[in-house]
Amino acid sequence: MGKFIYLDNAATTAVHLDVYKSMEPYFTEFYGNPSSIYSFAAKSKKAIEDARHEIASFLGAKDNEIYFTGGGSESDNWAIKSAAFALKEKGKHIITSKIEHHAVLHTCQYLEKEGFEVSYIDVDENGILKLEELKQAIREDTILITIMFANNEIGTIEPIREIGKIAEEHKILFHTDAVQAYGHLPINVDDLHIDMLSASAHKLNGPKGIGCMYLRNGVKLGPLLHGGAQERNRRAGTHNVPGIVGFGEATKIAAKTMEKRTEYERELRDYLIDRVMKEIPYTRLNGHRTKRLSNNANFSFRFIEGESLLIMLDQKGICASSGSACTSGSLDPSHVLLAIGLPHEIAHGSLRLTLAENITKQDIDYVVEETKKIVERLRSMSPLYEDFIKEQKEEV
Questions:
Q1: Cβ contacts of residue 339 below 8 Å, gap of 6+?
Q2: Could you list the active site residues?
């Protein structure tokens, strides 16, 4: 096998070997349904509660405030839809941002068809929510604010504590999609005034198909899924015991390694950003320079198409993306890049590189060198770039 460098960790991550080992027995040895009353099922039930405790501890929450779901998208849907329908007698106004994941945006668009009103708050050129605009958007009938913790495309970390305070002062429920932040940033739900939080295991070296929602005690929401009495009557369906165990183990590992891991990733990220910005002209860094996830670098290269860049990087053994994995195949430019003010032609030339602790400085050097060559080659075939260079020379 030739060169292989995986730089799409915001899309998904490799399952940690210890996570995989922790899951194995619950496929073949302790396979009892935890809802059953016989003693064989007790092992599965205890494993679930151990994982719940691990996740609650990481969030500074109580064990009974953690509910297991099928992933981040389900958690987002549950939080937003259930809050909307539970509180519709009080009001039908929801506030979110223009750069949310589609699991939030599409849910809000669905609710608009059901008679709710949604305000989509602007962000600045770095992707940071405009707090004054948020405050001005609050109305008497505002029932929910849902703002992501950190953006999945450009890595910008939002002012969650400030948003939580605003929501609390106005007695409005506050939900945050923390899928990208969970396991990568310290999170304390009480300190940040969070009422509901979504997370997913596969973004932190856990298995796919398992997530959770933190739901503050006292917040009365109905279930999204109906059927059985699992998860204290709030999430029907037989528990995914191996997935839950893996989620708990991945959380334990992430909590233990977070400080050292993110420091290493941040150094690599900054090295990558510095090289690209210095060595590839007509390039823009997307997202805040420092208030960003430790492993995220997102660039826009003028005069090229991002899809062509990704294909050519793949030929060199480099896995990257142009944005959210959930919109791969779409010809439309990223809604996040448009929201931070990029014109369509520049937004189309974006590249997201998301690191992990197994990436080395030598890997980054290889990626930068290959990216330089590919960008140069693509620009050499662009009549727009040719015209731009001619104009630059004429001005000189």
A1: 98, 99, 122, 123, 127
A2: 326
b vs e for 42-75, b when ≥16 Cβ sit within 10 Å of the residue's Cβ? ebbbebbeebbebbbebbebeeebbbbbbbbbbb
Work out the burial of residue 98: count CB atoms within 10 Å of its CB; fewer than 13 is exposed, 13-18 middle, 19 or more buried: middle
Backbone phi and psi for residue 305, each to the nearest 5 degrees, phi listed first? -100, 130
For the stretch 108-139, pLDDT in tens is: 999 999 999 999 999 999 999 999 999 999 99
Burial pattern 223-251, b for ≥16 Cβ within 10 A else e, equals bbbeeeebbeebbeeebbbbbbbbbbbbb
CB 347 within 8 A of CB 338: yes
Nearest to 247 by CA among 272, 295, 212: 212
What tens digit of pLDDT does each residue of 249-295 get? 999 999 999 999 999 999 999 999 999 999 999 999 999 999 999 99
Q: How far is CA 123 from CA 174, 189, 222, 340, 391, in A?
A: 18, 23, 32, 6, 33
| Mean pLDDT value across residues 99-103 | 98
Strand partners, 119: 95
Give the whole-angstrom CA distance, residue 255 versus residue 51: 13
Which token pair is 174?
Answer: 């506050």
For the record, the structure tokens of 152 come out as: 């999945």
Phi/psi of residue 275, nearest 5 degrees:
-65, -45
Asked whether the beta carbons of 256 and 51 are under 8 A apart, the reply is: no
Q: What string of DSSP letters covers 216-245?
A: -TT-----SS-SS-HHHHTS-S---HHHHH
CB 323, CB 350: distance < 8 Å: yes
**Do 97 and 147 form a contact (C-beta atoms < 8 A)?**
yes
The residue type found at 262 is T
User: In sequence order, what E strands does the chain have?
Assistant: 5-6, 66-69, 93-97, 117-121, 142-146, 173-177, 196-200, 211-215, 283-285, 296-301, 318-319, 350-354
Of 190, 134, 136, 125, nearest to 159 (Cα)?
134
SS3 196: strand
User: Using H for helix, E for strand and C for coil, what is the string for 278-295?
Assistant: HHCCCEEECCCCCCECCC
